[in-house]
Amino acid sequence: MAKVHIPTPLREFTDGQIKVDVEGDTVRMVVENLESRFPGLQNRLVQQGDLRPGLAVFVDGANSRRGLRTKLREDSEVFFLESIGGGSCGAGVEIQHNWSGCNHVRPHVGFARA
Question: Residue 2 class from Cβ within 10 Å (0-12 exposed, 13-18 middle, 19+ buried)?
Answer without folding.
Answer: buried
